[in-house]
Amino acid sequence: MENLLRYLNTLMPLSAEGVTALMPALSRREFRKNEYLLQEGQVCNALFYIDTGFCRSYHVIDGVEKNTGFFFENDIATNINSFGSGKRSGFSIIACEPLNAIVFDKGELFRAAAKVPEIETLGRLCIRLFASKQEEFSSLFKLYSASERLAYIEKHHPHMLQRVSLTQLSSFLGVARETLSRIRKRRAVS
């Protein structure tokens, strides 16, 4: 919980009352590698603060997994649309290695926010940060070629290259694994 509280305090200082109100909404959960945090078709009723490990979100299209995001330590993983609307999730979130998370229960979180206004403000800040990260990666596909997307990841998110498999990274970047290998070879020669 210490890492989470430090993280939350970077978003906004929390009062003792705020921390006390938030605690019933939080639980620690361990996920094994390849264990789902959220499966496609389920309603997302939680935010997952990643304490250790990492996970990925993905869709299955014509039997092929298409990675849409990676979440590492000090990230919040969720399906924001399902969480907000109560509709079923259109994608899955799965642990890529043993993962420890602090789970924010939606119902308890909303009860805490109703009692202590700073919890609602904190929730909006978390959602804004999550949406900002999603928009950053979404823009990659609108603005850059595959080679430029890889360069962007190398510059701004080098930890992804160290921890994410080439197959998963190629899916995320929207290219075949062989294409990604060729791009990396060309870049290494230049």
Automatic annotation (TrEMBL):
CDD domains in the record: CAP_ED
Highest taxon of source: Bacteria
Pfam families on file: cNMP_binding (PF00027)
Alphabetized SUPFAM superfamilies for the sequence: cAMP-binding domain-like
Cyclic nucleotide-binding domain: residues covered: 10-53
Entries under InterPro entries matching the protein: cNMP-bd_dom, cNMP-bd_dom_sf, RmlC-like_jellyroll
The name this protein goes by in its record: Crp/Fnr family transcriptional regulator
Protein's organism: Chitinophaga filiformis (Myxococcus filiformis)
